[in-house]
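chain below, 303 aa
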Amino acid sequence: MPWSVVALDDGSLLVSDRETGEIRRISGTTDEVIGSIPEAAAAGGEGGLLGLAVDPAGAPDAVFAYYTAEADNRVVSLPYSGGALGEPAPILTGIPKGDIHNGGRIAVGPDGALWVGTGDAGRRQDAQDPGSLAGKILRIERDGAVPPDNPTPGSPVYSLGHRNVQGLAWDTDGALWATEFGPEVDDELNLIRAGGNYGWPEVTGAPGDARFVDAQVVWPSTASSSPSGMAIVDDVAYIGGLRGQRLWQVPLRGGTAGEPVSHLDGDHGRLRDVAAAADGSLLVATNETGGARLLRVAVAQAD
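prediction:
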């Protein structure tokens, strides 16, 4: 059950398996388990071993992972050397867990910080509580420290009012975009602002309420999207749809999202994650029980 795919500079892939807690390295015809977090395998519901991230600059010396532990969701760092992973060391703990809405996407940003998308863990009002780590996008240093330029001094919270963040990626201007599940209606693609409040559970989508930041793209029915992992290539977002079973393509220009176009409609089942490979292609993880696959998809170049 692959949940996160990371493409390394050497062409190999790291893949997290939500249900087994294993981290696999895939290179050519080689597919091997290079590490595991056994505690994650015991998680129920939507929990387990979720997001992976590496420093995008050069060969990684550590891999970051987000997983559901016995008492919380947490982010750990695992040393990476000689093609193998060492023991996980916690760098951020206390993220509320639940049977649903555990978030889990993590990424190292162009600023060098580690960004973490969380869910409300089924406790809706926690998303509006600035003292809770649930329903937030968090920004921390790679050792877990809080950056001094975060919106609130001493707090890892970068934005709030999120229901269940599933994708994080940056455009060429360095702006962060995030995908988010809606409650049967109003799946979202959001442009993230420092200290921004994205409205959940008070509002969803783009109602024009001055108290909150409107979504840039709203899919009115979650049956057509349920947007999960996302990659941005040349200012075009590519987003995997779970219930929608399709790959969404959304142009991004100057902080504004254009009209979504869908591809692979129903061809490969539920699409969990999308990553950009070093050769410019996309890597797409499917989310089919007993038949999950990794797809390589070519991206047409603009004239």
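The longest strand covers residues 73-81. The first helix runs from residue 38 to 41.
thats it, cya
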